[in-house]
User: Which sequence fits this backbone?
């Protein structure tokens, strides 16, 4: 059973999703991930999207550490039920009144809640949402192909806030995803069979493009060299 590592709800035990439809991030990987995010001072006050919620462990950890709002998505009904249970436990520990939740259509929110749980495909939600997000977790099942991950990232890019960070979790057996225009992978960390990619809006690429015509940021650096 996973737990909240730190923050206002530190130590709270999190329920797991029954069956094999989800792949939870281990506490060891989660601790490393959030330690890195804390070093960027990006969590407190952040607008967070957990695009493949599973048990909601990543979104709940961000909530415990001071995120302003967290939206947690999943398509699997049992996962959505577990996410709601875990968010409720975290918010209770934080002294809040409850969770905001919604189905595929419509929503309702409880007073004092900073969390919203929705049963929805990540791509469908991102395309219809207004954004913007400061921190996004993209942690799909490993069977989801990189092409679908790249498609989601493409939809996310224009809805990221300035200075946002996207954390993409993939299998070390798979090639690195294609980031596409407007995104830059600034750090990679491997933990056994898990690889974490830390991605941000490529503002440097845009600036380089202005300076060197229509060249990409990478090409511009080569030209400058």
Assistant:
């Amino acid at each position: 059973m996973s737990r909240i590592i730190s923050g206002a709800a530190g130590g709270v035990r999190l329920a797991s999703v029954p069956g094999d439809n989800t792949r939870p991030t281990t506490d060891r990987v989660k601790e490393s991930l959030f330690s890195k995010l804390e070093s960027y001072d990006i969590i407190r006050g952040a607008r967070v999207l957990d695009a493949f919620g599973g048990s909601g462990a990543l979104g709940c950890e961000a909530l415990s550490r001071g995120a302003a709002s967290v939206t947690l998505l999943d398509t699997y009904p049992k996962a959505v039920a577990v996410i709601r249970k875990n968010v409720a436990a975290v918010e209770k520990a934080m002294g809040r009144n409850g969770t905001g939740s919604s189905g595929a259509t419509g929503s309702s929110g409880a007073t004092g809640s900073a969390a919203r749980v929705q049963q929805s495909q990540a791509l469908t939600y991102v395309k219809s949402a207004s954004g913007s997000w400061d921190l996004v977790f993209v942690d799909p099942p490993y069977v989801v192909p990189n092409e679908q991950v790249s498609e989601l990232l493409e939809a996310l890019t224009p809805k990221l806030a300035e200075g946002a960070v996207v954390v993409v979790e993939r299998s070390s057996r798979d090639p690195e995803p294609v980031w596409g225009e407007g995104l830059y992978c600034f750090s990679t960390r491997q933990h056994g069979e898990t690889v974490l990619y830390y991605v941000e809006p490529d503002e440097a690429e845009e600036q380089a493009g202005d300076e060197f015509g229509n060249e990409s940021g990478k090409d511009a650096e080569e030209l400058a060299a």
The first strand starts at residue 47 and ends at 50. The two ends are 51 Å apart (CA to CA).
